[in-house]
Every structure is written in C-alpha cells, then in structure tokens.
Amino acid sequence: MKISSNRILTFGIIPLLLLLLWFVLSLFYASKYSFSVIPLAYNKSNFISLKTDELLAKQKVSAQFQAKENNLGIVSVRFKTYSRINNDIVIFRLKETGKNDWYYQYQYKVDQFQDNDYFTFGFPIILNSINKTYYFEIESTKGKIGDAVSISTKSPIFIAQHQFTKQQLLANKTMIPEFLIKKIYYSFSDINFLISSFVYLLPFIYYILWFYLMRPLINIGFPFLSRFSIKNWNVPIEYRSGKKYLLLYIHLVAIFILIFFMNTMNNYVNLIMIGLWIILIMIYRFGYSISYLLALFFLLLCPVLFIFNQESIAENAAMWTYFFLVMGTAGAIVELKGDLQNMVDYKMMLKGHFSWRLKEKNK
Predict the structure, then answer these.
(1) Which ranges constitute the DSSP H helices of the chain?
(2) Which one in 140, 176, 211, 230 has a CA-CA gap of 20 to 30 Å to 27?
(3) What is the DSSP letter of 259?
C-alpha cells in the first residue's frame, strides 16, 4: 500500500518536528540557567536564622545546605526590596560546616537587587563539594527602617548552582551521559522548568487536538499552507462554540499557570504563547474585541492581587494585559485594512458558549 507524501508529512514529520522543538527548547531554554549549570533549590527549612522583615544594621540571616553535586560556585538568594532602591550594603560569607575560616566573603550594594528576584553570590568554584555541608550568612551593615531589604518568603528562597564547564565535559566524555541524566532529573524539581517545558509542548498538543478532534468538527481541510489563511475560512458560528473551544480553554489555563506559578520571566515562553494565540485567532476567526476582553479581565485582576499583597503575581497579570492590548490593537488594524468578514466578536463567542452549555445541561 502506497503512503502519500501528504500523510507522511501530516502524521509523521510534523508531529516529530514539534516533539523535537519541545525537547530542544526544554533542554536549552526552559531555565534561565546555562545548560552546563545544575541548580538545586532550597527553602525555609534550611535556614538556621531567618528574618523576613527588613534586615537592619548588624542583623543577619544564616542557612546551611548539603551540596548534592561537585563544582559548587554560586548561591542565589531571593530578596524583597519593597519596590524601591535601597542604600544598604550586605556582607555575604560562606564556609564549609565545621571549619573556622570563611571560604569566601564579600560586600554587595543592595541597590542592584531586584524585588522578589534572585541575587547571585558567586565565589571560586569548589571542585569537590559533593555531599559536603556548607553554611552561609548575610549581614546588613547599615540597613534602616524604610531603607533596607529582606529575605523573600517566595519559594524557593535560595538556589545552589553547580557549574560544569564545557571543557570539563569534553575532556571526560564519560561524564556527559551522567550529567544529562542529572540535569534532566534536577530540572524537573524546578517549577519554572516544568511550566516552561509544558508551554513548549503546547504546539504539539494543539496540533494533535486540532487534527484529531477539532478539525473534523469544524470541517476545514488539511494540509495547510494553501488554506491557512483567514480569508479562506468561512466557518459557521455553530461550529465555534462549546467543545470546539477546547484549544482556547487550554490556552487560558496555561496563561493562568504562568501568572500564578511562574517565578521568572522567560521570553521564549511568552513568544510561544503569543504565537499560539495568533493561531487560535486564525482557527476560530476571533475578532479584536476578544483580545480586548481578555486584556480587561487581566487588568481588573491586578488590583485584586495587590489587595492580597501579591505584587509579583499582579505584575505578571499586568504583562498579559499589555500583550492582549497589543494583540487587540493589531487585530483591529488587520480587520480594518483587510476588510475581513464573519469575524467572531466577544458577544458571539459568549453566546455560542453558554447556549451550548445550556443544551448540554438539558439533554
């Protein structure tokens, strides 16, 4: 039986390329850390002395942790700056537990700290650090009320980074498989990695759902490029309601996960989400008013989050407000210049959705 080239492309090559995209992006761009760095997270239980309000002059916090790998070279601590520029200077000290002398100590100006973000305290790499316990402390030299930083309570509070150079890995190639296994294993303990990897997998998920579930219902032909234009898509409104909005639901859930659980900004993740939103606009023929509606929703969410002292989450919501405002404005220009017909505005979408829900309930 002869298999057509279209079927090979549709069922074989494209899904494999999307999975390859997920694997490569997850391996190299799911974390803000270099590929050769293994980051290990620690929380409140590792602190011997923890002060979460302003760190005033002569006050200090201290913690200890067991290094799980060799090549310990950085300890990153999350600070709270209260959204202001502070003028304190802190002293970071680190030593191996049981030793009298400090392995490393240095003074740092806190005006370079970012609110609820990590500041990296780097020191000469400790080659044989595995299974050894280390103690560090951070002391304020001139902090005062209204002009000081504090340790953030947002988890994980600090991260120990183990740095493996390319030269080390290439010089001993037997280390590479073990390093990759450890890199993947430890990465899945990082919430930011998990979320980023999930977003990178969304193109594959959307493709599978679209091709096997959505496309037969909406009745739009494949393959693609010749018909992947909104001008050619004249889809009745009854095909754009209810279960047909599954991709939209997944997209909104992914955005909420990014807003509430993503601790650091990842530009590649944002680009993937924006690109997928453009594809959803093409699939469902969403008008610009739907982007504006979502922008309004996230804008209204911001003050609610501020009331509950969730400033960093509110900032994430504000970012998505901006993105949807830009997408709505761009959509309005495209509709105006392109004279597009039969676009779905927010009223049509909500009406189609709730009418489908009512029909399902009355069955």
Answers:
(1) 5-8, 14-29, 166-171, 175-187, 191-209, 215-218, 246-261, 267-284, 288-307, 311-338, 346-362
(2) 211
(3) H
Q: What's residue 359's pLDDT?
A: 52
Residue with tokens 């290439």: 170
Q: What is the pTM of this model?
A: 0.72
Q: Let me know: does 276 contact 258? Beta carbons within 8 Å.
A: no
Q: Report phi then psi at 155, rounded to 5.
A: -85, 150
pLDDT at 162: 93
The residues, ordered by sequence, that sit 6+ positions from 148 with a Cβ below 8 Å of its Cβ are 54, 55, 56, 86, 88, 110, 140
Query: CATH 2.60.120: does it fit domain 37-187?
Result: yes
Cβ neighbours around 217 below 10 Å, total? 13
Average pLDDT, 10 consecutive residues per value, the chain (363 residues): 67 89 86 81 92 94 95 95 94 96 96 92 95 97 95 90 80 77 79 91 91 55 39 43 75 95 86 94 87 96 91 91 95 80 75 56 53
What are the distances in angstroms from CA 270 to CA 170, 199, 205, 229, 296?
33, 9, 17, 24, 19
User: Any idea where the domains of the chain sit in the sequence?
Assistant: 37-187, 191-362
Interatomic CA distance for residues 322 and 183, integer angstroms: 35
Residues in the chain: 363
For the record, the structure tokens of 197 come out as: 């990897």
Q: What pLDDT, on a 0 to 100 scale, did the predictor assign at position 4?
A: 66
Q: Is the distance from CB of 195 to CB of 111 less than 8 angstroms?
A: no
Q: What are the angstrom distances between the C-alpha of 216 and each of 209, 221, 273?
A: 10, 9, 25
Instruction: Name every residue whose Cβ is closer than 8 Å to that of residue 233 and which is 6 or more positions away in sequence.
Output: 220, 227, 282, 285
Residue 142's pLDDT is 95
pLDDT at 226: 39
